[in-house]
Design brief:
The complex is a heterodimer.
Chain A: E1 19-26, E2 35-43, E3 50-58, H1 74-83, E4 92-94, E5 99-102, H2 107-114, E6 130-140, E7 145-154, E8 170-175, E9 178-182, E10 189-190, E11 196-201, E12 209-213, E13 219-223, E14 226-232, E15 236-237, E16 241-244, H3 251-254, E17 256-260, E18 271-280, E19 285-294
Chain B: E1 12-15, E2 33-34, E3 39-41, E4 44-47, H1 55-60, E5 64-72, E6 78-85, H2 94-102, E7 106-108, E8 110-112, E9 115-117, E10 119-127, E11 161-169, E12 180-187, E13 191-198, E14 204-208, E15 213-219, E16 227-233, E17 239-245, E18 257-260, E19 269-272, H3 273-276, E20 317-320, E21 323-324, E22 329-330, E23 335-336, E24 343-349, E25 364-369, E26 378-384, E27 387-396, E28 400-409, H4 411-418, E29 425-445, E30 448-465, E31 479-498, E32 501-518, E33 521-539, E34 544-564, E35 582-603, E36 609-620, E37 625-639, E38 642-653, H5 657-660, E39 672-684, E40 689-706, E41 710-712, E42 718-720, E43 723-743, E44 746-760, E45 768-769, E46 776-786, E47 790-799, E48 803-804, E49 807-813, E50 818-823, E51 829-830, E52 834-846, E53 851-859, E54 867-872, E55 879-883, E56 888-896
Parallel strand pairs in B: 1-10, 11-17, 20-25
Antiparallel strand pairs in B: 1-18, 2-18, 3-8, 4-7, 5-6, 5-10, 8-9, 11-14, 12-13, 12-15, 15-16, 19-24, 20-21, 22-23, 24-25, 26-27, 26-56, 27-28, 28-29, 29-30, 30-31, 31-32, 32-33, 33-34, 34-35, 35-36, 36-37, 37-38, 38-39, 39-40, 40-43, 41-42, 43-44, 44-45, 44-46, 46-47, 47-52, 48-51, 49-50, 52-53, ...
The chains are: A mainly beta, B mainly beta.
Chain lengths: 298, 897
């Protein structure tokens, strides 16, 4: 969304409340008969617990401005599917830390639903598979509730290779002249109120090549656009997100950022976390987290 | 006020003339007055008579001013004198003395197309005690009522000019005809001696055979400061001089030439260019004044939108001399694309407008281009914080004139200096705009008038983002560019062979180019436009006149568009684009014809009643639909100061092009329709104070409205309609206007609009508020003239906040990595009320050959934190109203020559 500037608010990438940062499906686009494991990346302020998780899916979600509700309830959708000789999995996907969705929808039915949707105007965008909605509702003991949705594309055309989730090989910070790999333990000391260069290690081949249709309707080869979101729980980063765009922004440029941890009075804790979520433009997602120690003000 | 008394055409001129001292400004242009430049000559006073100062007033030291109404016949004689504004205090004899003197005045008559005509003017006669410019006791000048060249000495048989000159107005360099020049001195032999001469039409005067030696000169033109100097005449030599005489006031409200056009519409606001330029809060922009009129909703300062009586911005048209132009402002609202120098006036019709105007269901703004009749080479150069421009007009003989103008912004230069090289955003092309105009007039004969205007405008901006994900993570490029340019050639031929026939033929040719690019998004449109319009008016006697005509608009467009569908009015999140739903279309040379014809009768069965039945027919090829639109307005003068008025009519327009285009909308949409009803009354309580109350109701149907409905495609598949034409709307309200014409140095108006604008979207069961529904709109504008060419003014606005749609929650979209707001009922909340005070101070410095005009426009004087939009944090759990203009000071300079 192209929106107005959002100054004076806590920035999007500063973690200070219950958040869903990403939902990964593995595999990213299941073929018929495959099961996708859905894993959320959650953030909870220290000392708080998740009290509820509720997973569900929906074949025909409504407009986002209305909360992306499911347009057909389970009975209606089931009846329609039965009329077409298919069977729908139950909408409810459980309340576990993760959820599983098995692609049992007839590829022929999905193909027919997508038929006529190749050219606008269309009801569905079926590039990469039939889109269904995955929904996760998370409650915390602080009374916070977050509802998150994502698309999961169910493949019905095996002629194109499936999208793979990207990978992050690690996160680093430049401490002095040394590039230090960040791990779960807060290894390097980062100065507060000073910018430190941080990087994500992402192999170049993560940006996959795939066949797509250009605006004129011609099939073409594209290189995936990658978007990195840089979450921190202290201070700010120079950019909330960076992106690799083939021919426009180099991958090396997209993998770097600068982090300025907050002053001690604004963030008293002595350690902070950096979480980078990497998305490709075809619903593939992964993440990596690293911790740093924050210097104590003299 | 001048009225041509021999014809239905009424003219109005305010003249600034005075008795023995500086004149005061004349009454200002009436709101229903036109430029009277159609008069080929104004009346010029050739004889002045000094009124006897009432003895009692002199004894008491009382000064006064009388505003007279003079009827001047075709010979220039004063045939009748009346009192427009009596002296204050009354009963001292000022009125009677001024009338006696005025009956002795003589004029060169006014002319229309070279033919002398009878007119009526207002004339200010001021009685002043302190400025009796008595020459030295040794010599008294002769009676000024009989200006004549000094008599030649008896010893010469043929007089010789040895002292001559020309009188020019200081600053403007305009020649000053009919001004008496007095020379006098104490002659050693003959005692006091003095002579007088009057300047001719070119401001020239001459004295014959003045005796050598030093002569004192005294010139006291009405409305100007007295001019005194000394010249030495040498025997056998001729002295030639140029005297520059300074006006008492150069304020912009010295609008001396305006002609009254009979009012025919229910609601019409007209404002002359000189006044437009000085309205506070406009920062010198000529078209900003429109937003101060009754019925116009307040919008963001720089958005360039015109919301009239609850109609959507696209429903109202802005025309230049009746012809459509694509853009009024650079960058949407920063500055007008036409300079003040080329404007005559702005006429605004908020509803029930004539059938001569079509393809619009809201209001009409008709920007009248100036009729060039320059007396001299002149113009101006101006600078402001945004741009610099110039205007030059040149007479080409007696029958033709040409003017050129141009403007360029220098925001690019400032930004290029201010933005560091390592900034997150680089300016590939810093924002820059320019415009250029050429205006020409040719009048080969009184019945023929040819006018041409060429207008060119260009805006461009190109930004390079180091990190496009900072703008939007879905953006696939790192540049954002916007280029807009258009040109228009407007040709007008007006043929007026006699009073019974008038034919105006207009042709407009132009090209528009709009180019926007942001990453993968593109909007590239090239549009060629031709518009031909002919209007004929027949006067069929004292009681009937008929106007009819036709216009044809042809557009040929080519476009490549790759954009999301734009949100509609009433859809929350109006400024956001959903990049996950980008659509593409290509249009190659599509031609759209829109012919129209109109007919309007002016029936005056009795002098007090004017009825205007009219009919307009349009064909819209875009939607293959024709419409016939009956319209009726009437005005009835109930009593001398009170006029009742009313109107009803049908107004039809095509749907927006983007809503009809196959990829973005519904090609089966039809025209949008609105019925206008209005009624009210006007009260002219005096020549300078007028009131207007107008109630209105509008019913809209067939409005294009977003819909979730589906249709069956050609292949049997279901397709979304996106839009249908099942939307409806209602608007009702009351407009109150009090207009204070220039009187006792004060001018201005108060406009108040009480209204409710409702819409019902397709499939909805109940009405909702229109996006710009503003219950109360109060605008007060005033300017006060101060001595020494100072002018101070202010504008105060109090407006109900705009409706907004509350956000009741949000959902995190893990695919796009953004939160989507969940909206409550549409437009069920409001931003806080808007109020703002703007002040403006103008000062003119008068130099011999030019005038320097400086202004300071202070906007939002008390730094009110107003709301233009509601901002949300990333998950929509917090919000802030912001966007209002802070305290802002704008300075501008203009040098006129």
């Amino acid at each position: 969304m192209l929106g107005a500037c959002r100054d004076d608010f806590v920035p999007f990438n500063r973690l200070d409340r219950l958040r869903v940062l990403a939902i990964q499906g593995e595999p990213a686009a299941p073929a018929f008969g495959e099961e996708t494991v859905l894993t959320p990346l959650l953030y909870l302020p220290a000392g708080h617990q998740v009290t509820r998780r509720a997973w569900s899916w929906c074949p025909f979600p409504g407009p986002a401005s209305a909360g992306s509700p499911c347009l057909l309830d389970e009975a209606e959708a089931g009846a329609l599917a039965a009329a077409a000789g298919a069977e729908l999995p139950p909408y409810d996907l459980g309340d576990g830390d993760t959820a599983r969705f098995e692609h049992t929808l007839d590829p022929g039915l999905l193909a027919s639903l997508c038929a006529g949707a190749a050219d606008p105007p269309s009801l569905l965008r079926c590039d990469g598979g039939f889109p269904i909605q995955i929904r996760l509702v998370v409650d915390s003991d602080a009374g916070q509730v977050v509802t998150a949705v994502r698309r999961l594309r169910l493949r019905f055309d095996e002629s194109h290779p499936p999208n793979q989730n990207p990978v992050i090989a690690g996160l680093t910070a430049m401490v002095g002249s040394e590039e230090v790999l960040l791990g779960e333990e807060p290894a390097p000391d980062l100065p507060r109120e000073q910018e430190t260069e941080i990087r994500a290690r992402v192999p170049a081949e993560v940006a996959e090549r795939y066949r797509a249709v250009d605006p004129e309707g011609e099939e073409m080869e594209r290189v995936e656009r990658l978007v990195l979101t840089w979450f921190v729980d202290s201070g700010d980063t120079e950019s909330e997100r960076t992106s690799f765009i083939d021919g426009v922004v180099e991958l090396e440029d997209a993998l770097g950022n600068r982090w300025e941890p907050a002053a001690q009075e604004d963030y008293p804790a002595d350690r902070a976390r950096l979480t980078v979520v990497l998305r490709d433009e075809r619903e593939g997602v992964t993440w990596s987290t690293g911790a740093v120690a924050l210097a104590v003000a003299p | 006020v001048i009225r041509r008394r021999t014809a239905a055409l009424a003219a109005a001129i305010g003249m600034v003339l005075a008795g023995r001292a500086a004149a005061q400004p004349p009454p200002p242009a009436q709101p229903d007055q036109l430029d009277a430049s159609t008069l080929s000559k104004l009346p010029v006073q050739t004889k002045f008579a000094l009124a006897d100062y009432p003895p009692e007033a002199r004894a008491r030291g009382v000064e006064a001013e009388v505003v007279l109404v003079l009827d001047i016949d075709q010979t220039g004689a004063v045939t009748q004198v009346g009192i427009a504004e009596p002296a204050d205090p009354p009963d001292l004899g000022f009125d009677e003395a001024a009338m006696v003197a005025a009956k002795q005045f003589e004029f060169e008559p006014a002319e229309l197309d070279g033919t002398p005509i009878a007119v009526q003017i207002t004339y200010r006669y001021r009685f002043t005690l302190a400025t009796d410019p008595a020459p030295p006791a040794a010599g008294q000048p002769p009676d000024r009522g009989a200006p004549a060249p000094a008599p030649a000495p008896a010893r010469r048989t043929k007089p010789v000019v040895n002292f001559a000159g020309v009188l020019l107005q200081r600053g403007t360099r305009l020649p000053m005809p009919g001004v008496v020049v007095t020379v006098f001195r104490e002659d050693p032999a003959a005692g006091p001696v003095g002579f007088e001469a009057a300047s001719d039409a070119d401001g020239r005067f001459a004295f014959y055979d003045l005796a050598p030696g030093e002569w004192r000169i005294l010139i006291e033109p009405p409305g100007h400061y007295p001019f005194r100097t000394t010249e030495v005449i040498q025997a056998g030599q001729r002295v030639d001089v140029t005297f520059y005489l300074e006006k008492a006031s150069y304020n912009p409200y010295d609008v001396t030439v305006t002609a009254e056009r009979p009012r025919k519409e229910v609601s019409r606001t007209a404002i002359a260019a000189d006044e437009i330029d000085k309205v506070p809060g406009g920062a010198g922009d000529p078209l900003a004044v429109i937003r101060n009129f009754a019925g116009v909703a307040r919008t963001e300062p720089e958005d360039g939108l015109l919301v009239v009586r609850g109609s959507a911005p696209a429903d109202s048209h802005v025309l230049f001399d009746g012809m459509e132009v694509p853009l009024l402002y650079h960058f949407g609202g920063v500055k007008s694309v036409i300079p003040i120098g080329m404007l005559d006036s702005i006429e605004f019709y908020p509803g029930n407008f004539s059938p001569m105007y079509g393809r619009a269901t809201g209001g009409i703004v008709d920007v009248k281009i100036k009729q060039l009749v320059p007396d001299k080479v002149g113009g101006y150069a101006d600078v402001s914080i945004l741009d610099a421009g110039g205007y030059l007009e040149v007479p080409l003989g007696k029958r033709a004139a040409v003017a050129v103008a141009g403007r360029r912004s220098y925001i690019d230069g400032i930004l290029n200096l201010a933005v560091p090289d390592d900034a997150a955003v680089s300016l590939l092309t810093a924002p820059v705009y320019y415009d250029a105009q050429v205006l020409g007039n040719y009048r080969p004969a009184p019945a023929h008038d040819l006018r041409g205007l060429f207008l060119l405008s260009d805006d461009r901006l190109e930004l390079l983002f180091r990190n496009p994900a900072d703008v939007d993570p879905a953006l696939e490029g790192n540049t954002i560019s916007a280029k807009t340019n258009f040109y228009r050639s407007l040709l007008t031929y007006r043929y007026v062979p006699d009073e019974a026939l008038e034919n105006t033929l207009r042709l407009s040719l132009g090209r528009d180019r709009f180019l926007f690019g942001a990453g993968q998004l593109t909007f590239d449109l090239e549009l060629y436009t031709a518009q031909l319009r002919d209007t004929v008016r027949h006067k069929l006697g004292r009681h009937v006149a008929v106007s009819y005509g036709a216009d044809l608009k042809v557009e040929q467009g080519s476009a490549f568009i790759r954009l999301p569908r734009a949100p509609s009015e009433g859809q929350p999140g109006g400024g956001d684009l959903d990049l996950s739903d980008v659509r593409t279309t290509q249009i190659d040379g599509q031609v759209v014809w829109s012919p129209g014809a109109f007919l309007e009768a002016e029936l005056r069965p009795i002098p007090q009643l004017l009825i205007l039945p009219g009919l307009r027919a349009d064909y819209f090829q875009l939607v293959d639909e024709a419409s016939v639109q009956p319209r009726l307005t009437a005005r009835w003068q109930l009593a001398d100061p009170v006029t009742a008025k009313g109107g009803a009519g049908l107004f039809v327009q095509p749907p927006p092009f983007e809503r009809v285009e196959t990829s973005f909308g519904n090609p089966d949409l039809g025209t949008e329709r609105t019925m206008h009803y209005s009624f009210g009354a006007e009260l002219a309580s005096s020549s300078w104070l007028k009131f207007d109350a107008t109630g209105f109701y509008k019913h809209m149907w067939h409005l294009v409205s977003p819909t979730d409905r589906l249709r069956m495609g050609e292949g049997g598949e279901l397709e979304p309609l996106f839009y249908d034409d099942r939307g409806t709307g209602r608007v009702y309200g009351l407009e109150l206007v009090a207009r204070h014409e220039l009187h006792r140095n004060l001018t201005g108006w108060v406009a108040y609009t009480l209204s409710r604008a409702l819409r019902r979207d397709s499939g909805a069961m109940e009405d909702r508020l229109f996006d710009f529904d503003q219950t109360h709109i109060l605008t007060a504008v005033a300017s006060y003239l101060l001595p020494r060419n100072w002018l101070v003014g202010g504008r105060f606005r109090l407006v109900t906040g705009n409706p907004t749609t509350p956000v009741v929650g949000s959902v995190y979209d893990a695919s796009s990595d953004q939160y989507d707001p969940i909206y409550g009922r549409v437009n069920t909340a409001r931003t806080r009320d808007f109020h703002q005070l703007d002040l403006r101070v103008d000062k003119r410095w008068i130099y011999r050959n030019w005038i320097l005009n400086a202004y300071v426009d202070i906007q939002n004087v008390y730094n009110r934190s107003n709301t233009e939009w509601v901002d949300f944090n990333f998950d929509y759990s917090e919000s802030k109203e912001q966007g209002g203009v802070p305290l802002l000071t704008i300075i501008g300079l203009r040098a006129e020559f």
